[in-house]
Amino acid sequence: MSGRHFALYFPPSTKNIMMTVGVLGAGTMGSGIVQVAAQNGHPVVLVDLNEQILNKSKVQLGKIMNRLVEKGSITQEQADQTQANISYSQDIHDFKNCGLVIEAIIENLEVKSKVFCQIEQIVPKGCILASNTSSLSIASIGAALQEPSLMIGVHFFNPAPLMPLVEIIPAVQTSEATLKTTRDLIDSWKKVTVHCKDTPGFIVNRVARPFYGEALRIYEEGIADFATIDWAMTSLGGFRMGPFTLMDYIGNDVNYTVTETVFQAFYYDPRYKPSFTQKRHSEAGYLGRKSGRGYYDYSEGAEKPAANEDAVLGQEILDRIVAMLINEAIDALFLNIGTKEDIDLAMTKGVNYPKGLLHWANELGLDVVLERLESLFHEYGEDRYRPSPLLRRMVRNNERFFG
Ligand code: NAI
């Protein structure tokens, strides 16, 4: 009998066992996840098709460990142990003893789905199969498995060893046991886990859209230039990086693709509409730091443009972007994408926001946020600015978040 409709295999409990963790893909994310699991004492098997990338990952980890020892963050013994915990391979058959396999390969549904079906044939029964995908649905990745109840999303943030957040995303097929074992395990790695619905962008990449989108829109309308918008968000808003600096850091190609994917996945909801400015920068090869030029010029000796530090203009920019971010966070709560605690944690621990957006809404006053959105909605007549029904309801009932 096929296990398709029944959870026949229960994942092992994490108590008292150091399960072997498999990681597929030795790129940016895979290498970071391997470090986290190995530092937490797990035997780890890292598999990548590309031998050079595997070697690079190993050398890179050696450098990181040396640096941590020099800084006194870990002992030489701990560094040696972490490295000894990892084995490197080009053969997925080496996942044969794993209790959990985390996949971090290219963002392509067909490739991911196929490779999970192969892995399922190799690993012990009950092995949890997790994907680090940023934008694909977990339900679709797990659909072809014989035992899809063992499939789950675990979304780390870059760099994985430094960013505390991991979004845990059960699909419709995921069993309670898989969810609990995965969350307990990743909590035991001293990560902050939040539980999200299997919807486009999960929590962080959904709620953060206006940080980029509204900044681009403000630029396109000619209200302010890149440097001024970045200045408003950092100096007045307390964000660690302004939107344009951050997009240049992430890469305009990568950030544009996430925006476009989220937009399509939401059936073209205008709230997530991508920007021509970003598309053109991406098309021109102005990708950001990695190509030497993005919204800013990173070539040697290039001068950073000065911001127009006009306090009134800066406040207008900040108020508009923050109102849009808060609206997105409230709408995510309205649609049960996560709990209010998790939505606030996700933005502070995953993307370093200066405070949780729902706490921020309380501070500003929900009525003030609603007024700002209504005034934008009235002015532009675009659905992009529609206030969340939950925001309206809370203002009407004179409610606030967190009691
Ligand atoms: P990357 O391009 O740095 O690494 C991907 C690695 O997978 C490469 O080393 C490649 O050789 C290997 N690979 C490709 N196909 C393979 C296969 N069939 N078998 C074995 N290895 C294979 O990619 P990155 O940035 O690490 O992303 C990996 C995944 O993590 C993607 O799904 C991405 O959406 C997701 N992600 C990326 C984040 C980021 O900031 N880069 C953040 C969170 C998630």
Walk me through what this model shows.
- It is a single chain.
- With 403 residues, the chain is of the alpha/beta class.
- The chain has two domains: 175 residues, 3-Layer(aba) Sandwich (Rossmann fold), CATH 3.40.50; 191 residues, N-(1-d-carboxylethyl)-l-norvaline Dehydrogenase, domain 2, CATH 1.10.1040.
- Helix content is 49%, strand content 10%.
- It has 17 helices and eight strands.
- The chain has an eight-stranded mixed sheet, sandwiched between helices.
- Strand 1, helix 1 and strand 2 form a beta-alpha-beta unit.
- Helix 8 runs antiparallel to helix 13, helix 13 packs across helix 15 and helix 15 packs across helix 16.
- The relative contact order is 0.09.
- The protein binds 1,4-dihydronicotinamide adenine dinucleotide.
- 1,4-dihydronicotinamide adenine dinucleotide binds next to helix 1, helix 4 and strand 6.
